[in-house]
């Protein structure tokens, strides 16, 4: 372990573009144990001291699924556009979209306060602060994975085995994760200075939820507005995973590649901003 | 309840239940408490605290001291027994408790005062004194987050004592901070008790307990193992510690002289009364302008050593004529105990405005390495009717003693020899 | 102070290091400062540019009052703070014991918190597993290590946190006043640990407000005052300068310390005598011990051997304490303490240093005496008690074989000492007009 041997605190990259571009990966590898420990701690601390313990980890998603099924499946008896499917397809589609949304949004919104909550790590010990952002994304990922398991548990009996196109899912998830990481890094750094950001998150979540193609497909959106929608990092994976998982359509490989590429860039950009602002953290907390 | 007992604890007990998991705990609670593994933190603790008394509480870590104090300060409910507390209680336990990081010292003082029952007007009346005692300078109006632990302790202490408590519960928080502050605190605690306040003092520092408290209780494994004169209680406590450390089965302890009741030692108050600091005052305008230390060769020094011959020179000027002036030099330790002192000769009368110098030359005892305080009093009236006319602020005197020194004012051995009997005694 | 500083290798090179804070700026201004390099706000130099070299294996003391820039310097040395000017080059890891328990969560057990904290401080999972037993042993909190930290007292909390912190790998250790946590025994172990670290070649930076403690640990020191490096040099000199400044307007002219002399031969006596009457030795006084030897007699003599029934303050006197061995003694220490009526420890001594090189061996049934010769101090009137003892072992690590309290009453029947715990006779105490 060679933490803390540079004059500016800890950072993964010394110099040079190639190293910088590789930094999201390098940090993940170098700090893997620490990230894993923090993720474990984060999840554990939610349920520590509760009676039901681990039940709570699955309770949230299960409850969500049950409510949607009740409301959209049975009460509203909705259908996904003109495509027919049975009653239970709809709630599953929503559910699948929501777990992705929650994954992204949770990472990003918790990031706005994570550094303030851990002040002592800024001033008192030498610590790779970016690890906090990784651990937030990691925690959110664990929660999402549980959601996926539940999704699978219900999908299997109802729809049979998922189509082959579902194999594209992990790649899309990776892309989303990279965007989440970039967002977390940027917002964590900015959040140290601008405490307002924490307040912005709540209304922003509502906005983002309804502006994502979660409750409706992208083609419902008027042509003119579609490019704007695509600025939302959730837009592409929501569409693509839905089409892949439920309708068996493979996503365009070029599209996936572009998405991943932009995701990677955003992670790098977030990291650059973080590194830029880091020296000023101690002055503000 | 007699008006002189401010804390009456009877049969206090506290039991924590350890359960296998939270589910077990819930079931236990629903079925009326108990269950699981019972950990007895306190058992059958009874004692009284009188008005104006300072009671020391000693015992190892984990023996239940903090639990007892929390019960007394009503932050914890006992599982058994009762405690009656009369008066306002201020607790100064453990750094880090109670003050909010994001608020300034002044704001925290206001919160704490409100919690302790002071009205805004009362607070406005004391806030300046709080500020002065804490001596934080501009930091009083900066956030607590920026304070060092010493500053935090000073602020916490200052706030609590100015909220006019009847009972003070204090622990090691006093050991944080420099000697000037420690002396201020201990000075305050002493006069607090004299004026009728009651004190519960938790400490690992024998000297402090002996110096401050006439009585002490020893908590061992949650049980009251001793209650009596602080010296005796401390001895028992230490004897038990040594027994535990020695591990020997044959370790015997004999506590009292058989057939003889223990005589109570003289009280703290009694020894304080001989202190020249408590002579009647008749202050005049003027000032002590210098208190300086010199070595045997006449050079001014800043640190002195045990065993060294030193000279203390005091210069003062009184704006009133003094007919029988003398100067009194006092040396105190960090617990504000008077270690030793001296009076100069009574000099010829001094006209108003005249400057005079007193010189005290002596060999410094082998005092433990620490900072001490030199206090100076200018007296008038000779030996028959001395009055204090001028006081100087205490001057720090750091002492560094190379010779390993214990005891308040150690004596250096000139020789130590061993003699062994060449012939073992017959069986 | 052990451990030699290697002259060839610098552990830390500080060059023109300075830190300026910009105060009273709005959050947006701070952001602009960080992002765009602006300088909004009121500048405050917490540390003015300074240059310093710290050799590998050295122990450097840093002394200064609150607000002198000590913490800022430490954070810069550690790397948690970015400098405004200058640079720090480090050779090896720098670990600071500045804040203990960063990230401790009270709902988790001590062990869980220790593991995570160790990971935070840079240990790998294997290292953590290896060192947990050591951490546990040092903290000495027993079973509590598997209880939630909510149940800990503050002392236990600090002990565990400190224990984790010192088991982290570092070549340079920066220690702050946190050494004041815990009871005397724990502090002793902490200091021991520090010394071991230093003796093994580690570099130590010790920060304190207490000049004496710092001087006893570090041969070289610096004094920081209001962000400036005022003095750098041997710690005695630095301590003297610091002390002198603390004494306010009184400043040491020349500031040179008198060397520590041997026993002073100048004596002074009070005008009136102090009469001491020792009482008889009481074998049934309160006592405790593991057994194996017993104190059987304590007596006072003139130096020429004649017994005394009373003597005076200031007299050269001998105290003989006799011990009867029931088992074989191989490292016996005989000691005594004289206490006042409140039980306060006035003075005492023991035979350890005299016999440390060559401890006397005593066979079962044998007698051993220690004779202490000293000038009996002046004490105020009152009853004092003698507490003689026989221990086995060394000064640091011993067992009480027999310890007696109040084995003898020593009565001071008249005394010129009017106040205080002891009397110090003045060589002179004059008062005269200056002009």
Could you explain how this protein is built, in words?
The complex is a heterotrimer of chains A (285), B (427) and C (435). Chain A is mainly α. Chain A has helices at 17-30, 32-47, 55-75, 89-117, 119-123, 130-159, 169-193, 196-210, 226-229, 235-247, 253-277, 281-284. Chain A starts with 16 loop residues before the first helix and ends with a helix. Chain B is of the alpha/beta class and 427 residues long. In chain B, the strands form 4 sheets. In chain B, strands 5-6-7-3-8-9 form a 6-stranded mixed sheet, with helices on one face. In chain B, strands 12, 14, 15, 17, 18 and 19 form a 6-stranded mixed sheet that branches. In chain B, a hairpin with a 5-residue loop joins strand 14 (326-332) and strand 15. In chain B, helix 3 (105-115) runs parallel beside helix 5 (149-162). The longest helix of chain B is centred in the middle third of the chain and has 17 residues, at 230-246. Chain C has 435 residues and is an alpha+beta fold. In chain C, the strands form 4 sheets. In chain C, strands 10, 11, 13, 15, 16, 18, 19 and 20 form an 8-stranded antiparallel sheet that branches. Chain C has a 6-stranded mixed sheet with strand order 5-6-7-3-8-9, with helices on both faces. Chain C has a 3-stranded antiparallel sheet with strand order 2-1-4. The longest helix of chain C has 16 residues, at 184-199. The radius of gyration of chain C is 28 Å and the shape is globular.
How many β-strands of chain A, per DSSP?
0
Question: What structural category arises from helix and sheet content of chain A?
Answer: mainly alpha
Radius of gyration of CA atoms of chain C, rounded to a whole number: 28 Å
The poorly predicted ranges of chain C are 248-265
Strand count, sense and barrel status of the largest sheet of chain A are: none
Query: Could you tell me the strand content of chain C as a percent range?
Result: 25-35%
CATH architecture of the largest domain in chain C: 3-Layer(aba) Sandwich
The separation of the N and C termini of chain C measures 49 Å
């Amino acid at each position: 372990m060679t933490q803390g041997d540079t004059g500016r605190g800890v950072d993964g990259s010394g110099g040079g573009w190639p190293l910088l571009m590789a930094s999201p990966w390098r940090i993940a590898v170098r700090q893997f144990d620490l990230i894993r420990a923090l993720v474990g701690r984060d999840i554990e601390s939610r349920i520590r001291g509760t009676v039901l313990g681990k039940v709570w980890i699955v309770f949230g998603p299960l409850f969500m699924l049950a409510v949607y099924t009740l409301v959209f499946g049975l009460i509203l008896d909705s259908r996904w556009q003109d495509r027919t499917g049975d009653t239970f397809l709809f709630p599953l589609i929503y559910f699948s979209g929501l777990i992705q949304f929650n994954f992204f949004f949770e990472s990003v919104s918790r990031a706005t306060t994570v550094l303030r909550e851990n002040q002592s790590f800024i001033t008192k010990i030498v610590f790779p602060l970016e690890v906090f952002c990784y651990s937030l994304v990691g925690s959110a990922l664990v929660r999402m994975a549980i959601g996926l398991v539940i999704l699978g548990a219900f999908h299997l009996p109802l729809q049979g085995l998922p189509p082959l196109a579902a194999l594209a899912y992990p790649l899309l998830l990776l892309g989303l994760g990279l965007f989440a990481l970039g967002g977390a890094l940027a917002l964590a750094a900015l959040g140290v200075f601008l405490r307002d950001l924490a307040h912005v998150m709540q209304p922003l979540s509502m906005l983002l939820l309804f502006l994502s193609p979660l409750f409706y497909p992208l083609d419902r959106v008027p042509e003119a507005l579609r490019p704007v929608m695509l600025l939302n990092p959730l837009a592409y994976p929501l569409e693509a995973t839905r089409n892949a998982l439920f309708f068996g359509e493979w996503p365009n490989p070029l599209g996936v590649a572009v998405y991943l590429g932009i995701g990677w860039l955003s992670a790098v950009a977030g990291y650059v901003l973080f590194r830029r602002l880091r020296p000023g953290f101690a002055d503000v907390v | 309840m007699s008006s002189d007992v401010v804390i009456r604890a009877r049969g206090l007990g506290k039991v924590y239940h350890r359960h296998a998991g939270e589910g077990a705990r819930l079931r236990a609670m629903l079925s009326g408490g108990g269950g699981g593994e019972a950990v007895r933190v306190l058992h059958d603790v009874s004692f009284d605290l009188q008005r104006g008394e300072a009671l020391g509480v000693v015992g190892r870590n984990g023996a239940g001291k903090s639990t007892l104090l929390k019960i007394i300060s009503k932050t914890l409910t006992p599982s058994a027994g009762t405690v009656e507390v009369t008066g306002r209680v201020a607790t100064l336990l453990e750094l880090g408790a109670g003050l909010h990081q994001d608020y300034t010292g002044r704001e925290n003082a206001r919160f704490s005062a409100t919690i302790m029952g002071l009205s805004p007007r009362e607070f406005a009346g004391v806030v300046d004194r709080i500020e002065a005692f804490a001596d934080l300078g501009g930091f009083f109006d900066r956030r607590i987050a920026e304070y060092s632990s010493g500053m935090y302790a000073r602020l916490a202490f200052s706030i609590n004592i100015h909220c006019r408590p009847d009972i003070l519960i204090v622990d090691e928080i006093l050991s944080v901070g420099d000697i000037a502050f420690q002396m201020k605190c201990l000075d305050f605690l002493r006069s607090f008790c004299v004026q009728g306040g009651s004190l519960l003092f938790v400490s690992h520092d024998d000297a402090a307990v002996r110096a401050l408290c006439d009585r002490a209780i020893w908590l061992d494994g949650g049980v009251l193992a001793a209650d009596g004169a602080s010296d005796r209680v401390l001895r028992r406590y230490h004897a038990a510690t040594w027994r535990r450390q020695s591990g020997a089965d044959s370790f015997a302890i004999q506590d009292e002289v058989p057939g003889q009741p223990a005589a109570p030692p003289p009280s703290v108050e009694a020894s304080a009364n001989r202190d020249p600091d408590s002579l009647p005052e008749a202050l005049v305008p003027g000032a002590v302008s210098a208190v300086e230390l010199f070595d045997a060769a006449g050079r001014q020094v800043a640190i002195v050593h045990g065993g060294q011959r030193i000279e203390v020179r005091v210069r003062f000027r009184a704006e009133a004529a003094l007919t029988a002036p003398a100067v009194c030099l006092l040396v105190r330790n960090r617990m504000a105990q008077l270690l030793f002192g001296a009076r100069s000769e009574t000099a010829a009368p001094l006209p108003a405005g005249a400057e005079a110098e007193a010189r005290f030359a002596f060999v410094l005892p082998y005092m433990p390495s620490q900072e001490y305080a030199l206090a100076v009093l200018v007296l008038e009236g000779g030996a028959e009717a001395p009055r204090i006319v001028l006081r100087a602020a205490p001057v720090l005197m750091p002492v560094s003693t190379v010779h390993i020194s214990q005891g308040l004012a150690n004596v250096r051995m000139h020789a130590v020899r061993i003699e062994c009997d060449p012939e073992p005694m017959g069986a | 102070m052990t451990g030699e500083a290697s002259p060839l290798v610098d552990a830390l090179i500080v060059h023109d290091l300075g830190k300026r804070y910009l105060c009273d700026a709005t959050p947006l201004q701070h952001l602009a400062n960080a992002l765009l390099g602006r300088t909004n706000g009121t500048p405050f130099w917490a540390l003015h540019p300074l240059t310093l070299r710290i050799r590998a294996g050295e122990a450097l003391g840093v002394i200064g009052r609150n607000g002198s820039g000590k913490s800022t310097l430490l954070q810069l040395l550690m790397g948690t703070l970015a400098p405004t000017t200058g640079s720090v080059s480090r050779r090896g890891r720098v670990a600071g014991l500045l804040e203990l328990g960063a990230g401790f969560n009270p709902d988790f057990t001590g062990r869980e918190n220790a593991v995570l904290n160790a990971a935070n401080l840079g240990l790998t999972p294997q290292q953590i597993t290896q060192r947990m037993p050591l951490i546990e042993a040092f903290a000495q909190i027993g079973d509590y290590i598997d209880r939630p930290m909510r149940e800990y007292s503050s002392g236990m909390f600090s002990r565990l946190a400190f224990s984790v912190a010192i088991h982290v790998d570092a070549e340079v250790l920066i220690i702050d006043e946190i050494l004041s946590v815990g009871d005397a025994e724990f502090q002793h172990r902490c200091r021991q640990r520090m010394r071991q670290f230093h003796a093994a070649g580690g570099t130590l930076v010790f920060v304190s407000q207490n000049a004496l403690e710092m001087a006893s640990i570090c041969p070289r020191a610096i004094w920081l005052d209001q962000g400036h490096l005022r003095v750098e040099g041997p710690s005695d000199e630095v301590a003297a300068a610091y002390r002198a400044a603390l004494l306010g307007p009184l400043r040491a002219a020349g500031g040179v310390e008198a060397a520590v002399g041997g026993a002073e031969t100048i004596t002074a006596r009070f005008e009136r005598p102090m009469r001491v009457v020792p009482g008889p030795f009481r074998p049934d006084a309160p006592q405790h011990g593991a057994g194996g030897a017993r104190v059987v007699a304590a007596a006072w003599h003139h130096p020429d051997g004649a017994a005394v029934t009373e003597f005076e303050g200031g007299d050269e006197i001998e105290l003989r304490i006799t011990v009867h061995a029931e088992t074989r003694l191989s490292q016996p220490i005989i000691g005594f303490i004289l206490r006042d009526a409140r039980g306060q420890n006035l003075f005492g001594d023991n035979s350890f240093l005299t016999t440390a090189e060559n401890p006397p061996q005593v066979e079962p049934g044998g007698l051993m005496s220690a004779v202490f010769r000293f000038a009996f101090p002046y004490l105020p009137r009152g009853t004092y008690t003698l507490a003689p003892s026989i221990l086995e072992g060394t000064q640091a690590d011993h067992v009480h074989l027999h310890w007696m309290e109040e084995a003898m009453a020593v009565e001071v029947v008249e005394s010129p000492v009017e106040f205080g715990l002891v009397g110090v006779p003045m060589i002179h105490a004059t008062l005269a007009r200056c002009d």
